[in-house]
Structures are given as C-alpha cells and as structure tokens.
Design goal:
The protein is of the alpha+beta class. The chain starts with 13 loop residues before the first strand and ends with a strand.
C-alpha cells in the first residue's frame, strides 16, 4: 500500500498502515473497538518504571515482518528465562530529556535535580548491562540492547556530589567543604553571642531567623532593651525581633561566608556539567537502552504469565493458525502493583484456516462468545505485530496484515443522524474501498439492523466480495440464510461456538465447519414465555430452516457422543500408560533382585567349595596320622582297617559337602527334615512354617500374618515337631502373581490398634530379613484408628525409606505402601 494510511471516523473502526511503517491511527478508534489500549495497559503494568510503562502504551502494530519476528524471538528468549526465575531485572530511570537538551547549549549549567537524574541513569545502565551479559548465553538476542557505558569516573564523581535526595554534599569539592565549614563556624559564633545576650536580658524564647538574619525576641516594653535593627514583631505586637548592634558584624560575616559557599556550589554545578557535556550522546543511548530493556522485560513477564508462545509470522496472504488462543482481557492480571484477579474459566480456541479458506462465518446464540472470539483473533494479530507475544500456544502462525478493520458493537449515532444499520453500512463501504489480500476484517452481526432478507442478501454479497479479494474475514451472524453461503461459495466456511442444548448454557468451544443454532425459541421457553406463543412461533418457521435446525441438532448430539468417546479413550490410554510404566518399573526391580540373588548364590557356592576343599584336606591329614600311628604300633591289619574307616568317613563327608554346594552353600544339616508344615528359622531371626516347596529351590513360608518366598538354602529346621498344616492359622495374605515373587502384603482389617501395631512390626521384620523391596499394608479406611497407628509405626522405623498411600486404583487411603532402604 502506498500513500497516507486510512484512519477511522467516529462511526468507522478502521486500523490501517502504510507499507513498512507502524499502523497509523486517528483517535485509536479501531483499537478501542478491539480494546487494545486495555490490553496494553495490562502488559505495561509489568514495567519497572514510568518510562517503560509509557513505552508499552505507545506501541502500535507494524507490518515490517523482519522487525516483528525479531521482537517476538527476543521476547520469547527472555520469557523462557522468566519462567525459570532467571529473567533480567529491569531498572527504572528518570526523565533526562530536559537535561540533555540543556547540554546542547554551550555554557549552560545543569540543576542539581538534572545531575541527579543523570547519576541515576548511569547507575541503572551499569546494572542493566550486567544483567544482559548474565543472560547472554541463554538469550543471545538481548545483546542487541546493550550499549557502551561512560567511564566509571563520571558516576563516582556524581555519587560523591549528591545524596539520594539531590542535595549537594560537602564531598563535591574540597573548596566547597571548606566554605561550608566557615559558614558553620560563623553561625555558631553568632548564635552563641545572641544566646548570651538573651540570657542576660532574662527574656524567654530562643534565637530565631527573620529576613535571613538571626534575631532575639525582646518585649516591646522592656527597659534597657538592646540597640539594633528590628526585623519584625509578634502577632500581638508585644514582642520585637531585634538584631542587636553588637552582633551585626557577626551577622555580616555569616552572610559573606554563605555567599562564598553559594559561589562555590555554583562552581561545582558548572564543573559537573562540563564533565557530563561530552557524554551527552552516550547518556542518551544508555537511557534509551534502560527504557527499551524495561519495555522488553515487561513483555517477557507478560508472555510468561499468560503462557504465550511466539507465533510464526509471514506477510499476508499467509496461513492463519491459532492454537490454544485466549482473549487477553479474560486472563487473570497478576502484576506486583495489584493483587491477582480471581481466576476465571477461560476456554481456549483453535482456529486453523486452510489455504483456500478466507471467510469464517460464525453463528450461534447470543452470549455464546462470538464477539469475544472476533476480538481475540484481532488482538492476537495486533499484539504480535506490536512485538508482544499474545496468549497463544506453540504451533500458532499469524499473517502480518497491513490493515485491520473491526466493526464490533452498536454504531448508532444520534449526533450524526445515523441509525445502527446506516453506521454499519458506512463502515462496510470503507472496508470495500480498501480491503485486499493483506487485510483482516472482523464483522460483528453482519446484516443486522434491517429487514432480515435484505440484510442477509447484503451481507452475503459483501462477504463474497471480500472472499474473492483474498481478504481474511471473520463475521458473526444470526441470519439463517447466511449459513447456506458456505455450501455454495468457495472460500467460505461455517463455524460455531458450542451451546449445551440441555442446560442452554454456552460452552464457548469453537468448532469450524458446522454452523450454530440460535436457540431463540428454546431460551424463550426456558424463560417461561407462554407455551401457546412459542408453539405458534415454531409453526411460522419455514420448513427449510426447521429442517436445518433439526439437522444441526442431530450433528451436535453426534458430536457430543464422539467427544465423550474420545474422552473415554484418552482416559483408558492414560490408565494403560500408567500400567505400562508400573510394569516396566516392576520388571526393572525384579531384574535387579534376580541379579543380586545370582551374585549371592555364586558367592555362597564359591565359599562352599573352599570349605569343602579345606575339610577334605583335613580328613586326608587325619588318615595319614592314623596310618603313621598304626605302623608305629606294628599292627598292619589295624592300619589297613583304620585306613578303610577314615576313607569311608572322608567319602561321606565329601558327599555331604557336595550336597551342600548343590543346595547353595548351606552348612550341613540345616534343612534336614524340611517338609510341608515343618517349622523353620529364617535367616537373621524369626520362625515360620513351610506352606509350599517349589521346583525352583524356594519355599513359601508362613510368618505370622504374611507369606514369604525364601530360598530353601536360607532355612533352618527347628527341632520341635511340626504341627499339622490344617491347624495353622489362616493367613490373610492374598498376593498377586507378581507379588508372590517380589513383595508382600499384610491384611490388618478387623484388628484393634494394638494388634495391628504388633502385626506391622512382625511384617516389617520379616520383609527386611527376606530383603523384599516393599510391603503393602492393608488397613482399610474405616474410622482411621488402624491407619493412623500404621502410619506412626512406619514413620519412626529407620529401615523404611518412604511410605505413602497406594494409588486410587490400588486401594487409595485404605492401603499404605512401604519401601525399604536398599
């Protein structure tokens, strides 16, 4: 586009721009229609200083794609750091334009407040540059904001010269310090002299100041009052304020000292101004840097709060895809300057236009959110083109428009003698004069305000014209005739915002491809309009519209069913994924346990072999000793008999040792008499009964309220006779297939608190001895007495690494799962 940008009239809402320039506005009417100023105010609230705040409020969209893309990428880099609590800290700076302007005039002298503003700018710029360098690796584009700083000597000199209130300090110069000391000494001499005179006169009051001179109060009628200059009197006239002649000289000395100090102060201002003057351009640059960084940080903080992601941008015509879009003014405002607004339910929308789709016709009932959707789309585009990340999700892409037209709301004007319809037509005329394929048009309730048939015809013609031009147009309507436009006009697509037909409440879910129903008669029936009136109204609806409404109702019902099925499927997929993760975790744990068990078995087997070798050598040594003794006795037959006996003992001992090796390194005789029902001692302590002997060399042992799966090699038979298996107390243990191999559970339901505590202690001991990774304790929900007792026991047991209630689908608060220290 060339030439002057078009601007809005009181009844038009046109936002337009020249090519390559920011949008030109007149009165911001177009942005007022979109409520952009209110959104900018929210973004600006995150600024650190008033100048950064103002910089955001003055932002306007541009159609410079390179600039827009760069701004959005920079904000996105910093927003990621903000989310990680590593963002840049912006520094507010005061206004320095007046000081910089005065510096252009040779011989000019800056005031103390202006020099103080420059000092604050120097301090802030140093901090900002340090922050930019800190995040340079994670946010490289922020380095574009960095500017070179003046020599530190200038900042130090200004710091020595002024306090935080802008008062000139004695440290500004040695001459000034000496002059001020002289002033203080002269004042002290004068005040002491006056105090002495006042005491001599016996008067009341203190030394005071009148017309810049120190005086004492003297009663008018006092006899022998001192000669001097009268500088005033009290309100009643009874007291005169006199500067005695005897101290006039001292007063003059004080005044002269004050004049010398004032001259020295002026000299300090002049010297400091001359120090600053050569750095005027540098100060201007670093001041602009601080304001720009404040602007940037505010935009980054806003993007982080609204969970916005930088959209891809390209000059229109280009694809329009908004993922997880939300209206900025519906989101909570969480800024430090005011408390967060109460959270509201904001339903995001997804809008994706195919390359051949240019017009979206949105229909549905009132209060369904159609106008909000129009504004949200317009605001997302305007914010992005202003360098502000809008509240959209990843995967969004926006065209860069050169014009945005928004006709939203009632345009009636009594002053301009325009009806609502006339005002809308005036806007449509301006839109048709300028719209092209680089234009976004937002039309609310198109075709309203006149006869429905004529309004629908006019609206359809306007929409077709815009579609042929390639203009992206979003329009809302209640006119049923327009809903058929999509079926016969390429590039036009229907859309709706869903409405719950059962509750007659909007759900604000945007759906492209299906027109919406108006629900006018349904709402009227709910509001208890006479049924006879509603029935007659239904009979007057044309058959075609009635059929269309029935078809849409059927589509909505099918869609609800489909949505419910999808939700059920997602829920099942989530449960399946949870189960998969749990099984993988169990498999990993089981693999570790098996590897550890194999390692221990190998160690036991190696130890058993070494012990076997040692015992055999010892037996052979005994044989030789016996043979030697037999030979010494001269009884060869006895020697042969001794050899046979010892060799037989060695053979038996060898067989025992070999059996011990095969059993995993148990000492001989430990599991003798092992059978179903046998009483055995567990390794490390505790006893139980053998319930089952398995083929894998393990036994199932009942220990109190639990069943343990223990290698046979680790069991020792107890001398007492085993009781019959049928007399064993029934165990409440009911393990699953996986739990039989790697875990336990104990059931405490029906027990008292004391009984439960004893059972839990026994179960913990047994589980630790058996080296099981966890223990499931079933205590039920009930009154909570047993559950609380269980929680206390496991909480103080140092062998327990952590404990928690089971997942909801595995018993919830009725089951406590204990994991042991490895």
């Amino acid at each position: 586009m060339t030439g002057q940008g078009h601007m809005a009239s009181p009844h038009g809402v046109l936002v337009s721009a020249d090519a390559g320039t920011p949008f030109a506005l007149a009165g911001d009417d177009g942005f007022e229609a979109l409520e952009l100023p209110a959104v900018l105010e929210r973004v600006a609230a995150y600024a650190a200083g008033p100048l950064g705040h103002e910089a955001i409020l003055t932002r306007r969209p541009s159609d410079d794609v390179a600039w827009i893309s760069g701004e959005l990428q920079t904000v996105a880099e910093l927003a990621r750091l903000v989310r990680d609590n590593r963002g840049v800290a912006a520094e507010p700076v005061p206004e320095v334009d007046s000081a910089l302007s005065r510096l252009r005039v040779a011989g000019s002298v800056l005031e103390g407040s202006q020099l103080l503003a420059i000092r604050r700018t120097l301090v802030a710029s140093r901090l900002v540059v340090a922050e930019l360098k800190r995040v340079a690796a994670d946010a490289p584009r922020t380095a574009l904001y960095e500017r070179p700083l003046p020599e530190k000597g200038l900042e130090r000199r200004l710091t020595l010269a002024f306090d935080d209130d802008g008062q000139l300090l004695d440290t500004a110069s040695p001459t000034l310090a000496a002059a001020r000391r002289e002033v203080r000494a002269a004042r002290e001499r004068l005040v002491q002299k006056l105090d002495g005179m006042l005491r001599h006169l016996g008067g009341e009051g203190t030394v005071t100041l009148r017309d810049g001179r120190y005086v004492i109060p003297v009663a008018r009628e006092l006899r022998g009052r001192p000669d001097g200059i009268v500088h005033g009197e009290s309100a009643s006239g009874a007291t005169l304020f006199i500067e005695p002649s005897a101290v006039i000289g001292l007063g003059n000395e004080l005044r002269e000292a004050e004049l010398r100090a004032e001259r020295e102060e002026l000299q300090v201002y002049r010297d400091l101004t001359e120090l600053v003057r050569p750095e005027r351009d540098v100060i201007s640059d670093i001041h602009a840097m601080c304001v720009a960084v404040d602007d940037l940080v505010a935009r980054a903080r806003y993007a982080a709060v609204v969970e916005g992601e930088a959209p891809a941008v390209a000059l229109a015509p280009a694809s329009l895809t908004i993922v997880n879009g939300r209206h900025p003014l519906l989101l909570p405002a969480e800024v430090p300057s005011r408390p967060a607004e109460p959270p509201s339910r904001v339903v995001p929308f997804n809008l994706d236009l195919d390359p051949d789709q240019r017009t979206v016709l949105i229909s549905g009932p009132n209060t369904g959110g159609k106008s909000v959707l129009l504004k949200a789309v317009g605001l997302c585009c305007a914010l992005a083109q202003s360098g502000i990340i809008p509240p959209v999700g990843p995967g969004s892409s926006l065209p860069v428009f050169r014009r945005i037209f928004a006709d939203i709301g009632d345009r009636q004007s009594i002053a301009a003698s325009l009806s609502t319809f006339s005002a809308h037509v005036a806007v449509l005329r301006r839109i048709l004069d300028h719209a092209d394929d680089k234009t976004l048009v937002l039309l609310d309730e198109i075709g309203s305000g006149t006869d429905p048939a004529e309004g629908a015809a006019l609206a359809g013609a306007v929409l077709l014209s815009l579609t042929r031009r390639g203009t992206i147009t979003l329009a809302t309507t209640h006119l049923g005739a327009l809903k058929e436009l999509a079926s016969r006009a390429p590039g036009v697509v229907n859309a709706s915002l869903q409405f719950d037909s059962a509750t007659l409440q909007p759900s604000y879910q945007f759906q492209k491809g299906v027109p919406g129903r108006s629900y006018g008669l349904a709402i009227a029936r709910r509001l208890r309009l006479p049924e006879s009136v509603i029935t007659e109204a239904e009979q007057q609806i044309p058959d075609a519209e009635r059929s269309l409404d029935a078809l849409l109702a059927s589509v909505e019902e099918r869609q609800r069913e489909q949505t419910q099925r999808e939700e059920d499927l997602r829920s099942r997929e989530a449960e399946a994924e949870l189960l998969r993760v749990r099984l993988e975790s169990q498999a990993t744990t089981q693999g570790v346990r098996e590897a550890e068990l194999k390692r221990k078995e190998k160690e036991a087997e190696r130890a058993a072999r070494e012990q076997s070798r040692s015992l055999l050598l010892e037996a052979r040594q005994k044989v030789e000793e016996a043979l030697v003794k037999a030979r010494e006795a001269g009884d060869e037959g006895a020697a042969r008999a001794a050899r046979r006996l010892v060799e037989e003992a060695a053979r038996i001992e060898g067989e025992k040792l070999a059996a011990m090796v095969r059993a995993g390194g148990r000492e001989g005789g430990k599991a003798e008499g092992l059978a179903i029902g046998a009483r055995v001692r567990l390794e490390g302590g505790g006893t139980g009964r053998v319930m089952e002997l398995r083929d894998d060399g393990k036994a199932v042992v009942s220990a109190g309220a639990m069943k343990l799966v223990v290698p046979v090699a680790k069991l020792v038979t107890v001398a007492s006779e085993p009781g019959p298996l049928s007399h064993t107390a029934p165990s409440p243990f009911r393990p699953t297939a996986s739990e039989r191999s790697e875990g336990f559970e104990v059931d405490l339901r029906g027990l008292t608190g004391e009984e439960a505590e004893q059972e839990v202690l026994s179960a913990l001991d047994a589980a630790v001895l058996a080296e099981h990774p966890y223990l499931r304790i079933i205590h039920g929900k009930g009154t909570g007495v047993v559950r609380d007792r269980v929680q206390k026991v496991v909480a103080r047991d140092r062998r327990v690494r952590k404990h928690a209630f089971a997942p909801a689908n595995q018993g919830g608060t009725g089951v406590t799962v204990v994991e042991f220290e490895s």
